[in-house]
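Appendix C reproduces, verbatim, an entry submitted by the partner laboratory led by Prof. M.T., so that reviewers can inspect both the input and the predicted structure.
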Amino acid sequence: MPDVLLLLAHPDLAHSRVHAALRQGLRREGADARWELRDLYALYPDYDIDVAAEQAALLRARLVVWLHPLHWYGMPALLKLWLDEVFAYGWAYGPGGTQLAGKDLWLVVSTGGTERSYRPDGHNRFFIDAFWPPYEQTAQLAGMRFLPPLVLHGAHQATRAEIAAHVETLIDHLRRWPDWPEIADLMPCIQGEAPAGERPPVVDAGDAADRSPAATAR
């Protein structure tokens, strides 16, 4: 059974150079691959996410990979919605939410800006590492180990050779995981706390109807 889950989130894959090549390279491995690839925009064009199916896919995996272009220094809209719904309170984090604890999370992204633009003297003003804390904190809250991201800068100007090398780097890492020198010394993640008092109470459908705006207005 595949022990690696890749979640591809590109809202316009037909016009993508990098992520279309990644998808093609990952599919080239066929049924013998150790990974499962889920193209979120193909699966959910209506943004109606099958939470149970996505959680089942996560449970099968030991390494979870998010592949996406960096949009306004973060993830595309559908992946954010996927995260909101699938990493549920009491399942992925919070009291009883330990289903993902002990797994690894790896971020594989592309940027439109060049590497030079992600510097204090560039137009993006910060090194690329400054944009990882929300991802890293998400992983920590779910008890997942956040691995050093793989980044391809300047995707619009990247040559075919550069894109092909990026694809092979990804596939080589997936084949070798967890035997990576760069993560050999990383400590297992200690899951963060999300106290119940900081969340609204969970209500059933009947209670929810009673607390609807119309009901509370009466």
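Helices lie at 18-28, 40-43, 51-60, 77-86, 133-141, 160-176, 205-210, 213-217. Additional entries are available on request from the coordinating office.
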